[in-house]
Here is the input.
Amino acid sequence: MDVFFGIRKLAKRFSWPVVTLGMFDGVHLGHQKVILKVLSLAGKEGGGSVVITFDRHPRSYISKSAQSCITSLEHRLVLFERLGVDVTVVLKFNHEIAETSAEEFINKIIHGCLGAKAVVLGFNCAFGKERRGNASMVCSFAKECGFKVFSCDPVKLEGEVISSTAIRKNIVEGNLEKANKMLGRRVSVFGTVISGDGRGRELGYPTANLNLHHEIKPPSGVYATKVILDNMEYNALTNIGIRPTFEGSSLDNEPLVEVHIIDFDESIYGKDLEVQFLYKLREEIKFQDVNELKLQLRHDKVSSLERFPKKILTE
Here is the structure.
């Protein structure tokens, strides 16, 4: 997948482009329906599938502070590529974009820069200044700009419309099974490995500490997980919490995300990895001493290895 940051180098370089746009936080089943429609239309015409997204949520720009999300930009790009998207255009959500009218967005970007032949929008897609852009407005430009417009109906689970808001709520509350169903995949976090204090290695269980770039995470506890690193899949144990056995080890009691990749001992500082949650092993608890903690970690490893599913990613 090709990724373009900004629109300067676009200039209608794509053959019969089919375009969609949105934040796509979570890339859940509703988003996937839109993107798969894009892929289908592009495939029929031998064209290119194009996703326009933003570097941050508009709420981050408005509030002047980072907002929690299901999937960071880096995570979204990985998921778009897995779906088979040809091109993603990442626009910086700044004052210029915030003040761009929906009409200008259509004329300048969708038609002018991309030369869209078809536009696919979700049922609740809204863009442009004051969120005035929607499927109805795009349709009014279709004849003049020479593209077709398609709108996708919402996807429901047990009568509830699947949405990023609903998924965020389920993940934070620990209802991972329902979140999985809404996402159409396992709940996961995507982060950059940063240096820690080395306690895991001292215990014989080296861990990768993750910077999640404001992604939300499940509740504190120890989880059996799958890790995707450099397109390879590994079994892992992941602890989310404040490490109560070591008082003061978590700054301001902010839960840490520590990943122990089983039977793996390579330096991966600075690398990005995805952690997919399978099930919760136990709550995070305070142990009497380090030896008791090591015994529990050994038990966690044995217990998880007995239940790990076979690999799902081979390339």
In short: Residues 290-307 form the longest helix (18 residues). Residues 2-6+14-154 form a domain with the Rossmann fold fold (CATH 3.40.50.620). The chain has two domains: 2-6+14-154, 187-307.
